[in-house]
Amino acid sequence: MALSLVLLAAAAATSWPLLMWCFALAWASMPAATALHIRGWYGEQSQHDGDRPHNR
Cα(50)–Cα(3) distance, rounded to whole angstroms? Predict the structure, then answer.
């Protein structure tokens, strides 16, 4: 997140298209990385739930 903020500030200050594209790629990768992290965490949690017996 800090990288995208730095790139945003640099792109706004210089108006250099390459910096703008780098910011866009860094910003767009954050939701993808977050989704992969949540998916891995959820898969790990469901594996642990299968180890415990359920009370009925």
Answer: 39
Q: Residue with structure tokens 């200050």?
A: 13
Q: What are the distances in angstroms from CA 24 to CA 31, 46, 55? A: 12, 34, 49
Residue with tokens 């977050």: 34
The pTM of the whole model exceeds 0.90? no
Burial of 23 (0-12, 13-18, 19+ CB in 10 A): buried
CA-to-CA distance for 56 and 40, rounded, in angstroms? Answer: 29
Q: Which comes out higher in pLDDT, residue 19 or 44? A: 19
